[in-house]
# Entry
Amino acid sequence: MRILIIQKKFMGDVLVTSTILPLLKKKYPKSEISFLLEEKHAQILIGNPFIDHFLFFSKDGPSKTLSELNQYKFDLVIDLYSKIETAIITYFSGAKTRIGFFKKYTQFFYNHAVKRSTKVKSKNTTLGIEHRLQMLEPLGIPFQEIFPKVYIQEDELKRAHQILSENTLSSTDNLIMISTFGSSDEKTYPIEYMAELLEYVAHYKPDAKILCNYLPSQKELFETLYLKVSDGANSSIIKKFDTKNLREFAAVTSLCKCLIGNEGGATNVSKALDVPTFTIFSPHIRKSDWAWTGKPEVDQFLHVTDFVPDSKSYSDFKPSFLKTDLEEFLDHTIV
# Structure
């Protein structure tokens, strides 16, 4: 049996989509599973033992993508992206079974159009995962609590230890990874507040070593943040720490005691690595979508509306609101 999974883009979405793969392999142990996505997002799935082939969207458009897919003669296509482009690809793939999310403008392309549930079955999985699991219902695969997983390769782990060594660190240190900024301004905890948070972490756990993760385009912003932190606190920040790509970041994070910071790709990766995670949600992102956790006894998820009901402004999300939960989290993870 040949199965195609479609999730075009966004690292968090691609990672969460991977939850259905082991369940498909369990149901169809002799199946070949291909994953169609944009090439730049494939690195998060490197090493996943449930993927047999990576396929990428052609830069020449959907028709070129489709012609390449037709060589595989898929029996089952699950379109988790469910936009017009991928719905057309699904329909013309030739697969007998075509599953996608129900939308008025795409439902005709699938023979199983799945309506998203509005209620969660498990508070740990959230709708972000459960909507993916719903896609398996037409195949007779029942709901079960499952979480994304990132697979670190042996050579990547070796490189991570080398990166730590280059910064006079080791995996025995109390390493704290920081998701310093979000992927956009609206997903980024205000820089003045983040500086205050770093101050607090450094003073509360003075033996901790703080690693700040950020994109190359955010380096200047990091320099600004660093200058806002007092000399006493910024001595805990390993200023020269850097990783060249997502895989290096993931490998180093796997050696950290915890991750703290802005909700997004970094927090999803750390949770998928089973690293305790303290997530600060931006006002326009719902916890019910992305606060999934395999460690509910440790992981923390905070949203401004937990403290200021109906607020839609990050400016209302004062660092003082985080203090009690952050202390509890740090006491669990840095001992």
The domain at 154-333 is CATH 3.40.50.2000 (Rossmann fold). The CA atoms of residues 177 and 259 lie 5 Å apart. The mean pLDDT is 96. The longest strand covers residues 32-37.
